[in-house]
Each structure stands twice: as structure tokens, then as C-alpha cells.
Amino acid sequence: MKLKDKVAVITGGANGIGKETANLFLREGAKVVITDVNKEAGAKAVTELSAISDDVLFFQANVSERDQVANMVNAAVTRFGKVDILINNAGITIDGLLAKMDDSSWDKVLEVNLTGVYKCSKAVLPIMLEQGSGVILNASSVVGLYGNVGQTNYAATKAGVIGLTKSWAKELGPKGIRVNAVAPGFIITDMTAKVPEKILKMMEDKTPLKKLGKPEDIANAYLFLASDQANYVNGTILSVDGGLVV
Predict the structure, then answer these.
(1) Which position among 118, 146, 154, 232 bears the catalytic label?
(2) DSSP class per residue in the chain
């Protein structure tokens, strides 16, 4: 087992990539805390994941709310005694062209996708520093690397995540804490379900592998980066996009 007795906190863990990552991590021996704003989805996810292992906990939290994040981390430590891995997976989209975008759409996406990453990482940092070890994995995106029409706010947050990742890798590497990011391409999730079918077909055609990704493709990338197999990988942005940006 690649993550035996490791404790992982996964934000946005009730659905999609987060839930699939929790599933995989549990199978690889980890103890997992999933957090999500959706209490009903979180409870359902834990019920399903408990079939794999009893070492799974759901905590309802909004990653943009500092007090809720602190309580989430406290719950993880109370239940499992430590935090070895943080996956900043939570994210939202409110798409729109710049000319039509209102300030609230900008603010909400930044609060979750960028400030939420900062707040969650800041909350687990004292624990990891005391341990002298830890892994922080951040969800970026192909659009954070190359931009996308109609996603000014989302692309800005995912580009910002890359900046955080590289800065923290330099700051925290000497402390035994590795920080990396995954940049998914178009993955079949509830988020992409909002995208018009013709756009998805266009992206599929543009991808050299001629298919869209699945949540397990990203979960497998997280597993590698979280495991000791990646113990010399720090500050990297791993693109998992089927060659879309080649």
C-alpha cells in the first residue's frame, strides 16, 4: 500500500475528482477526511467510502471561511492524530466573458479557488512543520497555463495556484514539506456537465488521445505525488490532459 497509515485531507471531496481520490487513497491504506460545502453529498460519499474502510470522515466546511477551515483541521487531528497530505481540490466556476462579468462572479471564484487554497494550506502548516514532513497538492488547470475564453476568473485562480505552488515548494521544501500541483485538462465531472456538448466534442477532437479524461486519471496523479515514489518531486505542475497543450 502506497499510503499506509498516512492521513489525507481532501477538500471538495464529496463528488467527482475529490471523491475518486478519496476512494483510491483509502484503497492504498490512507486515513481520509473529506470536506465539502454540500452536507448531503458528503454524508452520501462517506457511506459509500466506508465500504472500503472505516477510516474516513466527512466534515462540512467552506474553504473560504477561516473558522470552518480551522475546525476541519482540528477534526482531522482529533480523529486521526495528524495530517500528512492536503489536497486542495475544491473549486467552482462562474463563467462569463470579461465584458459581461460582474464583480461578485470574480470575487466568489477567487475566494474558493485561490484564497481557499491559501487558508487550508495555512491551517495544516503548523502540523506539518512540527512533524517535519508533509505533502500539499493543489488543483490547477490547463486553463491556468494557457487561458480560456469566458473563464477570466477561473483561469486567474488556476494561474495563481501555480504561483503559490512554486513559492511554497521553495519555502517549505527545506522543512520536509513537498508542494506540487496537478493541471487537469477536460475531465468528465459535474463541472464539465455544464459545458455544451459541442464544446466538449471540440475539446475531445483537439486532444491527441481523442478522449476526455476521467476522475481516476487525476486521482492517480495525486496518488503518485502524495506517495514516497515522488519524494524528490517538488514544485512541479503535472499536466494530465491527454496531450491537449502539446
Answers:
(1) 154
(2) -TTTT-EEEEETTTSHHHHHHHHHHHHTT-EEEEEES-HHHHHHHHHHHTTT-S-EEEEE--TT-HHHHHHHHHHHHHHHS---EEEE-------B-GGG--HHHHHHHHIIIIIHHHHHHHHHHHHHHHHT-EEEEEE--HHHHH--TTBHHHHHHHHHHHHHHHHHHHHHGGGTEEEEEEEE-SB-STTGGGS-HHHHHHHHHHSTTSS-B-HHHHHHHHHHHHSGGGTT--S-EEEESTTTT-
